[in-house]
Amino acid sequence: MIILLSSRFLMTAFPLTTMLVYFIPSIAYCQIGTSSTKTWLDRENNIKIIFSSAPAQPTIATPSTLSFTVENLQTGKPVTNLLARLVILGGPSNQETTFRMTNISAPYGHYSVNVIFPDIGTYQVITRVTSQSHDVSSLASFTVAVPALQSTLNLIGGNYIIEISLLIAVAAGVASFLILKITVYKEKQ
Questions:
Q1: Residue 18 — φ and ψ, nearest 5°?
Q2: Of 87, 125, 142, 165, whose CA is between 20 and 30 Å from 2?
């Protein structure tokens, strides 16, 4: 009797668990880079442009700050009295202008902009700095990879979905066991 109930329980629970595992979406997690600081060297103009982003890994629909520091390549001191331009290319075709800003003042060799990346993908951040006396001019390019929101990934394909599916499978197994037990009990009477 117990063997019959156990086999019926396993015959019901195993297909339900298999179906639930099949329908769980497969999400791959990746980490594109751990450091948000990148450097562009312009040896011809004796300039180093340091780029960083906050957060270190920007995500879609979340404000990000892109910061730039322009230094003398040999002395390491900031290059002062600069004007900067910034263009961000990206989007589905990877060539659409996502963001453009001109006449950014950098009196102390540092400037930053706040942006919101609209789509998942790789963006090209291009900046041009010139001194107000026009004796320095440099162009730099940096790549920023923007993944989906981490919380969205956890909600859709993270550990929670596995725990919920196992909970549903166990609940279905217990329910089928109780139904089988009630059926066997009624057949005896």
A1: -60, -40
A2: 165
For residue range 110-144, what is the model confidence (pLDDT) as tens digits? 999 999 988 888 899 999 999 877 678 899 999 99
Question: Do you know the residue count of the chain?
Answer: 189
Rounded Cα–Cα distance for residues 139 and 132 (Å): 15
Report the candidate in 20, 9, 15, 10 with the shortest Cα–Cα distance to residue 164: 20
Angle of helix 150-157 versus helix 159-188 axis, rounded to 10: 20
User: Starting from the edge strand earliest in sequence, which strands make up the sheet with 110-116, in order?
Assistant: 38-42, 47-54, 63-72, 110-116
- Report the distance separating Cα 54 and Cα 64, nearest Å: 6
Each residue's pLDDT tens digit, 60-106: 888 999 999 999 989 999 999 999 999 999 865 666 777 899 999 99
Sequential DSSP letters for 38-56: EEEEETTTTEEEEEEEESS
Token reading at 136: 């320095």
The SS3 call for residue 100 is strand
Beta-carbon count within 10 A of 76 CB: 8
